[in-house]
Amino acid sequence: MPAIYLVTFVLAGCSILYELLIAQTLSILAGNTVIWYSLTIGLYLGSMGFGALIFDRSKSTRETWERLFQIELMLSVLGAMAPMLLHFGRTVTAFGVLNSDALLVMVSFFPATLFAVISVGVLSGIELPLLMRAASEREPEDNPGNRVLAADYLGSLAGGLLFPLVLVPTLSEYSIGFTVALVNLVAALIIFIWKLRSSPSWPFRSVLVAGIAICLLAGLVGSTKIEQYFLRRYYYYQAYPDSLSEMLTGMQNFPWVERHMSAYQKIDIVDLSKRDISDYLVDAYSKKYKREKDYPKGVALFINGDPQLFASFDEVYHEYFAHVPVIHHRKVPKKVLILGGGDSLLLKEIVKYRTIESITMVDIDPVMIELARSHPLLSKMNGGALNDPRLNLVIGDAYQFVKNSDEKYDAIYMDFPNASDYNVSRLYSREFYSFVRRRLADGGYAVMNANGIDELTPPDEYGTQRPLPGNEWPTYWSTIKAAGFENVKPYFSNLEPHNPFAYSIVENLKLIDLPSTATFDERALAISRFVSYHIYTLQYGFIMMYDGAKDPEGNLEDPKIRLDVLNSVRYQLAFRLYMPEPDRIDPSRVNSIMRPSILSGPLFSLRMPFMTAH
Description:
Blueprint: H1 2-30, H2 33-53, H3 61-98, H4 102-107, H5 109-138, H6 145-170, H7 173-195, H8 202-221, H9 223-235, H10 244-249, E1 258-261, E2 266-271, H11 282-285, H12 288-291, E3 299-303, E4 306-310, H13 314-329, E5 335-340, H14 345-350, E6 358-363, H15 366-374, H16 376-382, E7 391-395, H17 398-404, E8 409-415, H18 422-425, H19 430-438, E9 440-449, H20 473-482, E10 487-492, H21 500-508, H22 520-536, E11 541-546, H23 568-573
Parallel strand pairs: 5-6, 5-8, 6-7, 8-9
Antiparallel strand pairs: 1-2, 2-3, 3-4, 9-11, 10-11
């Protein structure tokens, strides 16, 4: 009899692991982790109820075990295939988006998601009554149903603990799927040997189990190649061919994606040298490649599928981020706190000020820090900034650090990923900004990358831009003001569109196709629009927050630091765009840990690594 409880324990663990795996894959592809986990588990439980409802109690004991065996085989196959099914759906959806095929967009990803969740739920819902019936038939007077339920709940608990603590930090979603499916298949094999070995169809069933086992083992061994198959279709989707069949079979010539996993995030280093022809324009705006000819180019860092930095133009983001607040406040801070920024490129800019006395950097992910320290590309990009003797590196949660610290800082920089789930959205909350304000010394300032305030229309011929619907500026303003800050000042990494050097590069390298019959004015207009769009894609939004005078009156002596992009003209351009301040704090827009309101992206949308920027 204990064997039934053990089988129940294992099968319940496998079922919950399949659903958690689906939820995790959904959160990777679509963000909004809390929402997708909640919807997945809710739909799973509802499907289990439907499975229990359609359970047929009129079968014999032998038929009970035969049905249970069949269901475990189906669950093994479905569970292993679920992550790939979702990734295939996302791939087809991306193709539909690029080709404006509304039908493909509608019928690919989310129907595949529903099929995977409901199928596993219904089969699991039939599975439990079968186990309870099998136990009752063996000991009809002992009423073992409660013990079967207990084993089922305990198995679900074990699976729920195993998934986040062991499986997610160490294995890809594909490896998890194949591993759990193999365990499920072993349980099916035990049922077969225990109860069905005298069946006339045992040779066929033996071959079937062996065939599924071989496929699952092959999938587990080849999970890295499967992962790369989908990663290349995720990051190189803009290079998809015109036909869907070519898209699914091609792209072997694209570079593999270098993936690193931690307990907190998936870190991808991607070679985009074949993608962006606008990289040729870097020399028109930056001195970087003239100064360091071996600096990485065409490489990007992504965290959980969202862009973190692009090597070709990383200085546009980080120089504006680091130096505009220093210039605006007309003084170099003495004590600096950096929250996040584990790639250390922001740190590289901060350590340029020799008069800074101490720098504390807090990042939660030791894997990201180690990559920044030892990876040949990242360490080259950050200039070995982690070795600066003034640095105090803290591996920990930024929220808890500012909440519990007693230190005061002259400047606090917050460099966080997009707020795509609850854990990250709390770093954009009223409570967090209140703690940040407490950590500022008199006259100090805080500055942050403000994803979402750069949702603006492309500049017109006069350089005018306007906020798009869904621009997050009102949310940031209300949240920061609710935290007690007197001044909330946005700025942007604006570059000048009228750049003769950029125009000459476009024309000499023929970066755009122009008809031979185009007039001089038509060519000039086309080139101007190309350059204008290029700098539009490099427009990032930042927010400074501070108390006291609206216009600081410090005395910034020339720190004689090297800058590759930022100059006096571009500093003025950083404040060119006017973002109107609301009349009052809107409580419905205040992002709080109790009521997140800044989760990026609509609910039913997929991550597109290059469509997220403008």
